[in-house]
Amino acid sequence: MPEQIAYVIVTPYSLYKSRTGGILARLITRTGLDLVAARMFAPSPELVTAYSQAVVSAQDPQDRHIQELIRDYILENLAPDPKTGRRRRVMMLLFKGDDAVRKIRGVVGNISTTRASGETIRDTYGDLILGEDGHVRYFEPAVLAGPVADEAQEKLKLWARYSDADGGILENTITYAPNENSQRTLVLIKPDNFRFPTGRPGNVIDFFSRTGLYIVGIKVLRMSVADAMEFYGPVLEVLRTKLTDVVGARAKAAIEKELGFSVPAAEEKKLGETLCPLFGEYQFGNIVRFMSGKSPAEAPEKQRHQPGTEKCIALIYEGPEAVRKIRDVLGPTDPSKAPPGSIRREFGQTIMVNAAHASDSQENAERELKIVNVGENNFRALIEEAYGSIR
Question: In whole angstroms, what is the distance from residue 142 CA to residue 108 CA?
Fold first, then answer.
């Protein structure tokens, strides 16, 4: 079976109820597919209309009545709010692998009025409630996905055509009280969460959902060596100059163990001053390698701007006190010092392998967002690479 690209659309209600993490965890762990792209959309009336018209299909195994319910749901719930004109948020996730469309649809599941066990995403997060007269009282599909490969391809092309105008970093999709001042902050779900198909990326997102903030941008990122060097550049000076006592003590201990003589305090200080810059460069190289796949020394200048081999998810969270709220849930850099219930205590291992990064100030968020470029449309590029022109 050749590789396919499959899509999942997380509905506005699932996003609002912070079910994104649970949905993503199931998609990764139960399909074993590679998450290759993600993009936020605020669909225009034109995109909503075009997508709704493509939903009812003879190839869809669901009952036609259910397909018509989904079509009507799309028209009502993905379109801009008729009262305010404010567009609604949806998240598009792309997965790649053998038989991807069928695997994704199997995890997403179909919609039924019978009691479900919770096996599929729609069993757990979707609802179809009928009244005594048999009419639909409430309907929520939780996610949307293509039924077969041909239709998934056509719908992907459709969304790709609108991905510049309707997608990217969303603006004015959230309503705030007059006295609320919203911020934006960056989160990186780090490469240690993607070593093998695991629910950890979704679980980390679940933890961040406790902040009550809103996701307005998402990107699957393979950070280049150059980007990693720029992103962590401010750390280099700290590593080169602020750890002289630590380096001196470790050098003293190593020398005394290996050579068997005592190192006086004055010489220990000199060792720290001499070795700390070298230690800092070495540690900085390890950070860059962890984030991109190669250290600066391993990457010739002409290769430093190429996408790396390590995967991250970059997320932009928006809301009041976004920087502080995200940092509180994340916990301190050292997982051993992080409080119970924090992300780094639950998922971190070391100071470097610590599950996630979050901006520590609005100024740093602005700097880091420019480097990561969450608004970059690699979603469209992926579809065009797979299927050719989308016009």
Answer: 9
Angle at 109 between CA 76 and CA 386, to 5 degrees: 80
Q: Over the stretch 180-233, which tens digit does the pLDDT of each residue have?
A: 999 999 999 999 999 889 999 999 999 999 999 999 999 999 999 999 999 999
Give the integer Cα–Cα distance in Å for 141 and 76: 13
Residues of the chain with CATH 3.30.70.141: 1-168+375-391
Point out the catalytic residue in the list 65, 135, 305, 357: 357
- Record the pTM: 0.94
Q: Specify the residue for token string 């092309």.
A: 157
Helix axes 200-208, 20-31, angle to 10 degrees: 180
Q: Which candidate, 214, 162, 219, 169, places its Cα nearest to that of 20? A: 214
- The CATH superfamily of 1-168+375-391 is Nucleoside diphosphate kinase-like domain (3.30.70.141)
Residues 6+ apart with CB under 8 A from 92: 7, 8, 9, 10, 38, 39, 40, 41, 159, 167, 379
pLDDT digits (tens, 9 = 90+) for 304-363: 999 999 999 999 999 999 999 999 999 999 999 999 999 999 999 998 899 999 999 999
- Nearest Cα neighbor of 113 from 132, 97, 93, 85 is 132
CB 232 within 8 A of CB 284: yes
Per the DSSP assignment, residues forming a β-bridge with 217 are: 316
Is residue 135 among the annotated active site residues? no
